[in-house]
Structures are given as structure tokens and as C-alpha cells.
């Protein structure tokens, strides 16, 4: 399959970065459907090229009709910036432009940029609602994309998504893209779409089967030392470390820097400028380690990121898929390691059942486990129980594919 077989115009294909030669599975599936005008519900693994799967058809359509606008909604500011850049790389040569609209940036500057009628808006919901209240009209939006749709739902943005969708053209085309999918999301999406085509990218062709996952059982109190050891053993250029609570990110960062590992932190308690700086330093190699909360788990692409470490397992099992999916993107190999203590057994089991992988626990040399497993009496916080219930209601991509009816 080549891009020229997907009803894309020559000038558009020529504008693709030269690293992009053949379409990925989800691009092959989604591009023709979107170009022919269908609503689309697309499920594909992390790093499988979803941005261009919706970006190219949008650009193609806008080339035909410059009065129309497209709107892409994403859950985080970092993702908005990344998607906007990826789209602009292809849109600019077609004399089309994308504008990033998210919080933390001066609103008046955004309003000035909006006055120039950008063809594509890439936005987080909060800032967009704010701009609508200040007079922004979305009536020319004929293409609406919800990227990382499940995350938009999980983060509580759905009411905003609905408000925004109501402001767009009633004749619009709608596409939903995600790497994980739940029944709740499917239900919530229904009223926003008309007869959507459900597309699931072929498991075999998906790009992140090359992640080597290792899970180490360690004492809760040894995690910092174990992390330092793992980082030193890896000696990788870049290591992304996921942490659960943003409150712990800064102190862990300090401890790593003290151990002479250049480390930056990215979480929601930082200003937008600090967040951008931390990500930039990490991407450019100035810091070897980036400690991040799940703010960064979805969608963010870091070129050739070799190693992801979970300092603790995420509360929601599907977040694990997203976290480890930051590595081994676009066909590369990757390593994902997790530090697990006895208290995280429930989270681990939820991940095992969602991914249908064994994920055995190993010992980490030099870190004997002396903590005792908790007794049958559950000491879990109620929030955890809720997370597990939610997780049980979710489907993995595999389950999805086994059910031909779901297509
Ligand atoms: P997803 O949204 O599915 O997680 P992205 O759209 O962020 O994935 O793409 C991940 C990486 O793969 C990006 O660097 C992108 O440029 C690259 N990419 C996208 N499409 C292709 C392709 N057809 N061939 C090679 N690389 C691609
Ligand atoms: Mg994406």
C-alpha cells in the first residue's frame, strides 16, 4: 500500500516528511473512509500514526474548500502543540495553517491569530470554551476530531466536548481516535456521530510489539534507590520515568540530580513555560531523565525514546498501555520497566487482565524483597476499587478484534 493509493493528492504526498514513505495500518484504513465523508471511530495502538490518519484527510478536504474549518480536540496542552506542529508540517506547503489554542498562552494573542481565519484549530477544551464565551464562532467547523477520546472522557472534559460540538456546523464530519476504548466512551460518542465506521488497526501491523517489558518486585521503601540503579545500568540517552502523584515528582527529581543524573520534572503544578522547558530539555538531550505524571502518558511523541520506567504502576490499567507506548514508536525497539511493590498487586492484576499478558515479576539484583504481601484484608483506598471496576468494563484491542460484530 502506498499513499498514492489512498485518494490523496500529489502535492500533499510530496509534502510528507521523508521519513514517512508508506502508510501505517490505521492510516490505510482511516484515510479513505474520512475522504469519502464517513464519520469514523478509530482504534489503533500508540505510535501508530493516528495524527496523520486524520490530519491528511482534513488537509485534503480543506484544500477543496477554504471556507471550512477543522477542529481537533486533545486532552493536554503538550499534545495540542505536538499535533499542531505535525499538521502544519504538511498543511503549510498547501497554503493552509493550523493554530494551537490552549491555556497558559496569552488569550489576546490567540484572538489576533484567530482573526486571520486559520484553517485548522488544535485545541484543549478549557481554552476553547473560554474563547467561545469571548465571541469565537465555530460555525464554519465542518470537521471535528476527538484525539485521545478516551482520555478526554476520563479527564472529565466530555461536557465541554459536547458544548463545543454543538457550536460546530450541523453538517460536520466527526472522527474519534483512541488507543483504548470503553463501552462508556462508545455510548458517549454516539450522539456526536452519524453512522460511524468502526476501524481497528491490524494487530500484526501495529508498531509497538517491540517493547521489552520487565517488572521488578521491590520493597516500597527501596524504589528510589532501585530507580537510580536501573537508570545507571541502562545508561540510555533518554529515560522517561512515570510517577503517580505530582506531589512526589519534585522530591524524586532532586534525589536523582543529587545522584548526578540530570533530571527534569513535568507535572500539572508547573507553569506552562516550565512544562515546555522541561520537555524541550529532555527532547534535546540536555536532561537524561524526565519525571512525568500521566499528563505525558498520552499521545506525546519523543523521537527514539529508548526507555520508559514506571516508578509505580498507574491506577488505571489502560494508562499502562499508554505509558509504555511512549517507547518503541514508529517501528523502533523499546524497553519498559516497572518498579512494583506488594501494595500494587491489584493494579498489576488489572494490567495483566487488560493486556492479556503474563507480565511476571522479577527480582532486581541487590534489592531483596523483605516487605510482606498484605493479608486478605484489603487496605486499598476506595478510589482504587473504583478504578478496577472501570477497568473491568474496558476492552483491550485484542478483545475488540475477536468480536467481528464490533467492526
Ligand atoms: P499516535 O497518535 O498513533 O500515537 P503519532 O501520530 O504521534 O502516533 O505518530 C508517531 C510517530 O510516527 C510520529 O513521529 C510520526 O511522524 C510517525 N509516523 C506517522 N506516520 C508514519 C508513517 N506512515 N511512516 C513512518 N512514520 C510515521
Ligand atoms: Mg496521537
Automatic annotation (TrEMBL):
Residues 223-375 form the Helicase C-terminal domain. One of its GO terms (molecular function) is RNA helicase activity. Residues 1-28 form the DEAD-box RNA helicase Q domain. A motif (Q motif) lies at residues 1-28. Residues 362-407 are annotated as: Disordered. Belongs to the DEAD box helicase family. One of its GO terms (cellular component) is cytosol. PROSITE patterns: DEAD_ATP_HELICASE (PS00039), HELICASE_ATP_BIND_1 (PS51192), HELICASE_CTER (PS51194), Q_MOTIF (PS51195). Keywords: ATP-binding, Helicase, Hydrolase, Nucleotide-binding. The keyword Disulfide bond does not apply. Transmembrane segments: none annotated. This is DEAD/DEAH box helicase. It comes from Vibrio aquaticus. Residues 31-199 form the Helicase ATP-binding domain. Residues 386-407 have a biased composition (Basic residues).
Amino acid at each position: 500500500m502506498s499513499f498514492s493509493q489512498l485518494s490523496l493528492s500529489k502535492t500533499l504526498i510530496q509534502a510528507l516528511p521523508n521519513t514517512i514513505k508508506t502508510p501505517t495500518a490505521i492510516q490505510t484504513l482511516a484515510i479513505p473512509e474520512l475522504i469519502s465523508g464517513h464519520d469514523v471511530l478509530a482504534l489503533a495502538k500508540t505510535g501508530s500514526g493516528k495524527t496523520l490518519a486524520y490530519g491528511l484527510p482534513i488537509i485534503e478536504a480543506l484544500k477543496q474548500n477554504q471556507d471550512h474549518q477543522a477542529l481537533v480536540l486533545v486532552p493536554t496542552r503538550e499534545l495540542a502543540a505536538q499535533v499542531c506542529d505535525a499538521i502544519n508540517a504538511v498543511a503549510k506547503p498547501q497554503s493552509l495553517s493550523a493554530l494551537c489554542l490552549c491555556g497558559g498562552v496569552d488569550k489576546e494573542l490567540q484572538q489576533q491569530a484567530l482573526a486571520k481565519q486559520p484553517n485548522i484549530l488544535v485545541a484543549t477544551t478549557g481554552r476553547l470554551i473560554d474563547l467561545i464565551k469571548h465571541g469565537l464562532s465555530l460555525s464554519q467547523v465542518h470537521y471535528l476530531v476527538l484525539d485521545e477520546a478516551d482520555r478526554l472522557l476520563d479527564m472529565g472534559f466530555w461536557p465541554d466536548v459536547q458544548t463545543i460540538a454543538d457550536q460546530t456546523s450541523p453538517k460536520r464530519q466527526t472522527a474519534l481516535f483512541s488507543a483504548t476504548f470503553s463501552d462508556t466512551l462508545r455510548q458517549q460518542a454516539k450522539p456526536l456521530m452519524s453512522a460511524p465506521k468502526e476501524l481497528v488497526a491490524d494487530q500484526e501491523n501495529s508498531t509497538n510489539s517491540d517493547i521489552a517489558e520487565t517488572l521488578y518486585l521491590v520493597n516500597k521503601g527501596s524504589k528510589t534507590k532501585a530507580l537510580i540503579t536501573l537508570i545507571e545500568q541502562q545508561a540510555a540517552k533518554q529515560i522517561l520515568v512515570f510517577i503517580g502523584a505530582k506531589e512526589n515528582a519534585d522530591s524524586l527529581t532532586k534525589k536523582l540530580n543529587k545522584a548526578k543524573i540530570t533530571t527534569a520534572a513535568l507535572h500539572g503544578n508547573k507553569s506552562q513555560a516550565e512544562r515546555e522547558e522541561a520537555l524541550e530539555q529532555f527532547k534535546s538531550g540536555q536532561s537524561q531523565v524526565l519525571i512525568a505524571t500521566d499528563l505525558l502518558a498520552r499521545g506525546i511523541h519523543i523521537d527514539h525514546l529508548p526507555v520508559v520506567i514506571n516508578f509505580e504502576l498507574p491506577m488505571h490499567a489502560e494508562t499502562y498501555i499508554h505509558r509504555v507506548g511512549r517507547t518503541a514508536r514508529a517501528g523502533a525497539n523499546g524497553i519498559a520497566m516497572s518498579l512494583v511493590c506488594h501494595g500494587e498487586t491489584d493494579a498489576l492484576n488489572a494490567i495483566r487482565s487488560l493486556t492479556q499478558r503474563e507480565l511476571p515479576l522479577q527480582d532486581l539484583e541487590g534489592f531483596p524483597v523483605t516487605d510482606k504481601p498484605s493479608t486478605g484484608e484489603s487496605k486499598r483506598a476506595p478510589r482504587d476499587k473504583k478504578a478496577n471496576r472501570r477497568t473491568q468494563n474496558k476492552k483491550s484491542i485484542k478483545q475488540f478484534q475477536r468480536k467481528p460484530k464490533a467492526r
